[in-house]
Amino acid sequence: MSTLVIKDLHVSIEDKEILKGLNLTINTNEIHAIMGPNGTGKSTLASAIMGHPKYEVTQGTIEIDGENVLEMEVDERAQAGLFLAMQYPSEISGVTNADFIRSAINARREEGDEISLMKFIRELDKSMDFLEMDQEMAQRYLNEGFSGGEKKRNEILQLMMIKPKFAILDEIDSGLDIDALKVVAKGINEMRGEGFGCIAITHYQRLLNYITPDHVHVMMQGRVVKSGGPELAQRLEAEGYDWIKQELGIEDTDAVTEEA
Amino acid sequence: MTVETKLALSATEVRSFSQNNNEPAWFGSLRAEAIEKATELPMPTPDKTNITKWNFTEFPQHTVESATFSSLDELSAEVKEIIDIEGQENLYIQRNNTAAFLKISDELKAQGVIFTDILTAVREHSDLVQKYYMTDAVKVDEHKLTAYHAALVNGGVFLYVPKNVVVEKPLQVVFLHDNADASLFNHVLVVADSNSAVTYVQTYVSTVEQSNGQANLIEEVIALDNAQVTFGSVDVLAKGFTTYVNRRGHVKRDAKVDWALGLMNDSDTISESITHLVGDGSLANTKIVVVGRGEQKQNFTTEIRHWGKNSEGFILKHGVMKDSAQTIFNGIGKIEHGASKSNAVQESRVLMLSEGARGDANPILLIDEDDVMAGHAASVGRVDPLQLFYLMSRGLSKAEAERLVIHGFLAPVVTNLPIESVKNQLTKVIEGKVR
Questions:
Q1: Which ranges carry the SUF system FeS cluster assembly SufBD core domain (chain B) (predicted)?
Q2: Which of B287, B318, B347, B391 to mutate to test the interface with A (most CBs of A within 10 A)?
Q3: Is position B145 within any domain?
Q4: Which of A79, A90, A92 sits opposite B395 (nearest CB)?
Q5: d(Cα B202, Cα B123) in Å, to the nearest integer?
Q6: Chain B touched by A53 (CB under 8 Å)
Q7: pLDDT by residue (tens digit) across A119-134?
Q8: What is the mean pLDDT of the segment spanning B195-218?
Q9: Which residue of B has its CA nearest to A93?
Q10: CB B253 within 8 A of CB B308
Q11: Which of A117, B34, B123, B373 has the most crowded Cβ, counting Cβ within 10 A?
């Protein structure tokens, strides 16, 4: 079992503090949902864990099994087992999807132990079938000209091929129609189990109808303010966030702008 | 200010060089007249690059003697890589100024295709060469460097494809530069007669680090009615040359010329690629990739000029700049009066890899006709940090992520090169340069 521990995390973007002392612990074999109103720092958390260049960690720690994540470069964080499914994946012209995924898999393997081409193609075909993706997408340039739904499926395809210890899904459900949402959820449920932990960041309870979380956290004003089980998500869906604000005496002061 | 340029050879020397080569009288006269003109004519004035202090005229010796190759086994590994040794049926190798190897298939000979070095062609196909040599495309008296070239030509290729002949497989030429004292005044003349089609791919490769000579290259492509020419070139000339390269297309009715050029010189380079769409319904595609590095200064002018109605011209240029390299990209789409229903499109993209590099993209549209279409796009930027973040978040190192982004950036031109081995060589050169 692996554990990802975030303690007292403070993160700024362009000198504006977004996360203000966030604590979270997740183990492999667990799925955590992080919910909250717009502009509370959910995507900032995702980006900061992965090491996005625009976000500056000013205080606190992130560790995987005792290893200091904050000292690692972005690629080293990936090698350590982190994966971020992005809200707006980049388009890379001239690099095919298949070549890219193969490079990503081999980047985690020792030289001389690269995945064989046949094995790779078998696994890629299988995963693409599972995600109901057209085989021709393997030979298209990475995310170039993909629709919003295709990009999200492609993030899950990479997740299934790379098999990280911890996946952070940054609003994987936004902009998806219900069929695409079901497919994406199917992919994540397929990954679920020993050796895989997941943080699913979402605005909407809808995603959690298809992926049942073990833990639900509510973020407000740059902190986790309430945690619970799946029933918490259902109450949020039914009643919104106002009851939490009242319960905790939170006033809407400086709603921060969520960064894309 | 005028700079006194000392020309390396006199008219008498040029004439005796021509006589020693047994060249026909017209060619000797053309040389002799050209050297006179070269003393008087002004230098070209590439837009936004000041070349008054560049030395285009002095060199150690006009020609060097090099050994020929009796078999391809004698080639160095570096040169072998460029060639599909087993599969390439039509191949010419020039070593410095020496015609070093020629292979031409019986099929091509039977079709009447002429494929030989330019100085042999002048002797053996004098009338044909005379008809097209510096007549329709490049003129001797355009400026000092065209005249200097005409006077001192010491290598190059002549390719003639007769009417209605379609050459299926690409012809390949390698210009090998392995003597630091060599100067290259190469003239390539490709003539595709009516309804013919041919693909020609050449590589300039230096195997010496440094050159003491000049490279003054003129390449003319004449596509007669309804002919199709694909012209690929990968230029990898060494530091030390002052390179002037002039590529010119002359495209007649319904004819088409595709240029795919990987311009990877390490020398200071002035490059102009101009295609004249003289016939109605003619078409040109000019695709160029450039990598600049070190202290290199380069100027690339790419122009398509529309004279014929319904003519279409597309320019695509992608450049990567690193270190302190300085590069100007001038892209010109010019539609002359009367060239109605023509379409001129161009795109220039420059990717900067370092603070000290400079890259300017100047798109210019000159339109003298109302009923036309035209468009341009230009951008100069750095590697997108979000792209790097995305790639690295999957475990790729920064170097590998950058490599992929650059590779992808240049792919639209690289993938257009019609010979696999040349494409691979270009990819390798690019990777070596951007590392």
A1: 177-409
A2: B391
A3: yes
A4: A79
A5: 23
A6: yes
A7: 999 999 999 999 999 9
A8: 97
A9: B408
A10: yes
A11: B34
Contact predicate A95/B408, CB 8 Å: yes
Q: CA-CA-CA-CA torsion for B419, B422, B427, B429, nearest 10 degrees?
A: -170
Domains in chain A, ordered, with CATH?
Answer: 3-248 (3.40.50.300)
* B273 within a domain of the structure (yes/no): yes
More confident residue, A205 or A224: A224
> For residue B77, how many C-alpha atoms fall within 13 Å in the half-sphere facing its CB?
0
**Within this chain, do residues B193 and B50 fall inside the same structural domain, yes or no?**
yes
CA–CA gap between residue B128 and residue B114 (Å, rounded): 10
The answer to whether the CB of B173 falls within 8 A of the CB of B203 is: yes
Grouping H, G, I as helix, E, B as strand and the rest as coil, residue A184 is helix
For an interface test with B, give the residue of A95, A96, A105, A159 to mutate (most B CBs within 10 A): A95
Of B396, B398, B412, the CB nearest to A104: B396
In a domain, B95, yes or no: yes
A83 touches chain B (CB under 8 A): yes
- The pair of structure tokens assigned to B72 is 């391809």
| Average pLDDT across chain A, whole number | 93
CB atoms A95 and B396 under 8 Å: no
Model ipTM value: 0.94
- Domain final residue pick, B250, B278, B306: B278
Instruction: Tell me A188's DSSP state.
Output: H
In a domain, B328, yes or no: no
